[in-house]
Amino acid sequence: MESLAKHPRKPLSTTDSSHTAMKTMSTRDARPKRHKKGRASLHLLCLLLSVILVAVFIIKVFIPPPIKASSAILIHADTGRVLYAMHADLALPPASMSKMMTELLALDAVRSGQHTWDENISISRYAAEVPGSSIGMHEGEVYTLKQLFEALIIHSANDAAVAIAEHLGGSESAFVDAMNDRAKEIGLSERTVFANASGLPAADLLPYAEAASDGETMMTARDAAMLARWLLNQHPDLLEITSQRDVVVPQKKLSLHTTNLMLPGEPYAYEGNDGFKTGYTSSAGYCFTGTASRSGNRLITVVMGTGNADQRFTETRKLMDYGFERQNILPYFLSHLF
Q: What pTM does this model have?
């Protein structure tokens, strides 16, 4: 066994010592660099996710959905601010949505004291025979103004519309003049013209000498929304009727069902919906003016000329969803972010 003396331990040179020290320091320095690189990757990933979330948020909240209708509009009921519009100033046949003006004149007549809800109305031949949705009245039968008003709103009864017009105006033609005068007073455009009390095409009324059948009722989606807003703001109690699903007619021993299938319990029930007015004729297509309220925000929508009875409600739902999502942007964003 060789002694250590034969192989004495060689002392490290200054150069070797420095090299070892630098190698040790280099190993230590690499660790924080790797940590920094990992943190940078994590930050980049978080930034990318944030960008994706913001993009999804913008698409969902600020880009409106495609609406399958000839025209449409969405407004805030309190401010009148337009949240969405598509061909909103195009005059189209509104069908029974024009009955909103018939409603307004009846409400005005009662508020002014000229008429009362419990006054009796005798039904004319024309009112009894007018085609379309109806109570099924006969000439000479008697109903109260309130009964006819509720049937007009809930069941969109054409015979009720004609009976109200003849009672309040003396004739449907005189009532139509009052409808157009009132339209100007509340600021509807000249493109909206009322030709009769029911919204039926003139051709359907030609067999009746008493009917106002000289022209066609035309309305823009914007004016329909404005008219609905006026009714809601000036006559908020109207919602007590528009929110009803049925109206009982004792004289006929029957119950008339609502045409608004977005009310609670209906096939297209929508949270917050409590009105407003449907419409259909072959020339108008399927139309709907709707309203709903959530968290203190009330919206009004109008779709005109949709392809079928269901579509007017599905397209309205799209507009309502879009509108309510825009009302509380920050809470909505935070709820989807966390």
A: 0.81
